[in-house]
Design brief:
Elements: H1 3-14, H2 26-36, H3 41-54, H4 58-63, H5 66-73, H6 79-95, H7 104-108, H8 115-126, H9 135-145, H10 154-167, H11 173-186, H12 205-208, E1 225-238, E2 241-248, E3 259-260, E4 263-266, H13 272-276, H14 279-285, E5 291-303, E6 306-316, E7 326-329, H15 340-351
Bound molecules: iron/sulfur cluster.
Iron/sulfur cluster (SF4) binds near residues 140, 144, 187, 193 and 206.
Amino acid sequence: MEFRYLIIQWYERHKRDLPWRHTHDPYRIWVSEIILQQTRVDQGLAYYHRFMEQFPDVETLAKAEEEDVIKVWQGLGYYSRARNMHQSAKTIYQDYQSIFPASYEEIKRLRGIGDYSASAISSIAYGEPRPVIDGNVMRVVARYAGISEAVNSVAGKKMIMEFLLRQIDHDKPGDFNQAVMELGALVCKPKQPLCIQCPVHSGCFAHANGLTAGLPVTIKPRSVTVRFFNYLVISERKEDDWYIWLKKRTGNDIWKNLYDFPLIETERELSVKELENSEDWKLIAGAHHLQVIQVMNNARYLLTHRELRVKFFIIHADDYFHKDFLKIRFSDHHKYPVPRLIENFLKKVDDQPGIFSKFPD
Ligand code: SF4
């Protein structure tokens, strides 16, 4: 018998009795999936019940105060996930009349929903044949199919997806997905898998070849370097226009030939005072008086193997000049190629033109 039949048969007999397995309600499935990304099933259960008690449907969640949503989430960590759920509930309430979007593509457009959750919801709630890939699934498939490519590499992920697309049951894609995940959680465990109890052991490559300890293969992600970017957004008003200074990025670093602002890179987060006392500040200011009027966007950006922590210091100057920087009229900023995070900042200023003239309260 094929993998798909054996595994679904096994799932029907051995699955754990969990509340979200008694429903096809996409809202409940969504909540359970997001909670289970944070914690194990036994701990997640209590959170799921509490969440459902307080926010039984999309509309209640959409109308809730963010603070109350966060409170129910408290202890799970990654609070941005709870905020994203809250935002997405608002979108469903406002744009879809509280009816959960009914296809993978539409679900994936909601904030905070990636491939994994969109596949899980669309397959379980709507019967769309979208394979779900998580750590349990990767382990089961790599062992069963004998995939020796690292499961966290592009090639490895592609092979796993191809296997699942060939195998997924088009009549019961939700059960198929849950069955593979459940097998990984209960039988095909990371250490000492229970192969004798496994419904697919007769066709399993790793079992037949004594390779369960060697599969799946993973490559260690390189460690992430954290860089602190302090951007000096020097602004000056002349008659009716605001001017700002840009710097073209040269050298062998990220964003070569794009423009950003005069930058002071540090090894840790600095206060305004510390920044103003730094040598780099003196080099940028020269004989001019630069006055910080506001600090914005204490934000994190993830690049490959790098994390940027970025602050924008909005600064006032008079008759500023620096030979390395380019003075432009603010309204001309769209003429210069800039990295995404600078573009986002400039858009924000476009939307709130008062930012340059605002002094701290
Ligand atoms: S036979 Fe063993 S290694 Fe293969 S899928 Fe089953 S539990 Fe995993």
